[in-house]
Amino acid sequence: MADAQPEARYMDWEEGDGDPNGHTPGDSKNSANGFPIPPPTQTDRYGFLGGNQYTDPEEDKRTPPEVLRKRELKWLDMFENWEKWMSKRFKKVKDRCRKGIPPALRARAWQYLCGGKFQMEQNPGKYEEYLKHPGDLKYLDDIKKDLHRQFPNHEMFLSKGGHGQTDLFSVLKAYTIYNPQDGYCQAQAPIAAVLLMHMPAEQAFWCLVAICDKYITGYFSPGLEAIQLDGEVLFGLVKKTSPSIYKHLKKQCVEPIMYMTEWFMCIFTRNLSWGCVLRLWDVFLCEGVKVLFRTALLVMRTVLGAPEKMAECPSFYETVEKLRLRQMPPELLDEEYITREALKISVTDRDMEREHHKQITRRKAAKDSKGDASKKKKT
User: Fold this and answer.
1) Span 318-346, pLDDT tens digits
2) Does the pLDDT of residue 260 top 80, yes or no?
3) Judging by beta carbons within 10 Å of its beta carbon (0-12, 13-18, 19+), is residue 319 exposed, middle or buried?
4) Residue 125, Cβ neighbours under 10 Å: how many?
5) What are the Rab-GAP TBC domain coordinates in residue numbering (predicted)?
6) CA pair distance 72, 51, nearest whole angstrom
7) Whether residue 120 has pLDDT greater than 90
8) Cα separation of 332 and 298, whole Å?
9) 45-90, pLDDT tens digit by residue?
């Protein structure tokens, strides 16, 4: 597989490329999928006033109140004995995350699951200290340029200079001080924005730190080698689980980096309906990066798995457009479908570890071979 490189250090989502949440103007909810655009003054239960992330109240599937209350009580009990639950009854924690964390407790649960709560407790005053630091002007300029692109249809980020954009700037700036080696990458912004929709800035910052350090390690490092490696791992898993899709992509020279970069680096925040995003995050923060692989495999199977769907993609262009979810299949709007079907995909932790080792070995061999060829050329 050729080493496809992203065009720039920062993935270039420009205003003229379509919706800032990763869709083109032609696939607005008032067209292909038939979802009406609501009046601009009406927010859905997540805070969106319109656009592709908006959830129509008439189609919003809510958990019955009595079921929700029972789940809330169970989560409150887990919070009281968190270490015990995580060490001795983790399977039950995992099952409850897969059912969906109650919205009223989601912010608290995410902080417990990723460890952001504990990092914040161990570093009192550190966030304020980062904010007082002048920072790197290049990073700060890049952050400012991206603020208006993060969920512009959400009530929190509507206003330039509003509290949402101000907090987002602070969190992203603080991260560049915390981790100057990686600095700022555009894909960090939607992750931070999702966290800010649920919790105050300092809590969001420590959750961002935990996610970057423990879940998607190295994704924002210069050169983006970690995301390229995971793209190759994903392609290997596609070969194992969906050989017909693998052959189709191979034949059309569609490299993983062309479609999965945004999925993984932004944790699907730019690609799925909002209910699906939150359910995916519930499971992701509990079970780790393997959730991204399973979701990616499901997405690929949903958009390309049937012969008639492949027939709709006779060339490279149509295939890439399908994988970029320009037209969202109705199944991928259903959070229960995504949660249920992703778990059915026969990929184990061992499969992923084996594929990861295989791709590292392959990359090392290619690098050594290139080095040997270079030495021979010099002599």
Assistant:
1) 999 999 998 889 999 999 999 999 999 98
2) yes
3) buried
4) 8
5) 100-288
6) 31
7) yes
8) 9
9) 999 998 888 888 887 888 899 999 999 999 999 999 999 999 999 9
pLDDT band at 38 (very low <50, low <70, confident <90, very high): very low
Least Cα distance to 187 among 110, 295, 264, 259 occurs for 264
Query: Above 80 in pLDDT, residue 95?
Result: yes
User: Mean pLDDT in the chain?
Assistant: 88
Cβ–Cβ < 8 Å for 38, 45: no
Angle at 214 between CA 241 and CA 358, to 5 degrees: 40
- Would you state the structure tokens that stand for residue 206, as one six-digit string? 């420590």
Query: CB atoms < 10 A from the CB of 313, how many?
Result: 20
Q: Is 237 exposed, middle or buried (0-12, 13-18, 19+ CB in 10 A)?
A: buried
Distance between start and end Cα atoms, the chain: 28
As a whole number of angstroms, the distance between CA 291 and CA 86 comes to 18
CB count in 10 Å sphere of residue 122: 10
pTM of the model: 0.86
Q: What is the CA radius of gyration of the chain?
A: 21
Return the structure tokens found at 60: 């919003």
- The 3-state secondary structure of the chain, one letter per residue: CCCCCCCCCCCCCCHHHCECCCECHHHCCCCCCCCCCCCCCCCCCCCECCCCCCCCHHHCCCCCHHHHHHHHHHHHHHHHCHHHHHHHCHHHHHHHHHHCCCHHHHHHHHHHHHCHHHHHHHCCCHHHHHHHCCCCHHHHHHHHHHHHHCCCCECCCCCCCCHHHHHHHHHHHHHHHHCCCCCCCCCHHHHHHHHHCCCCHHHHHHHHHHHHHHHCCCCCCCCCHHHHHHHHHHHHHHHHHCHHHHHHHHHCCCCHHHCHHHHHHCCCCCCCCHHHHHHHHHHHHHHCCHHHHHHHHHHHHHHHCCHHHHHCCCCHHHHHHHHCCCCCCHHHHCHHHHHHHHHHCCCCHHHHHHHHHHHHHHHHHHHHHHHHHHHHHHC
Mean pLDDT of 147-158: 94
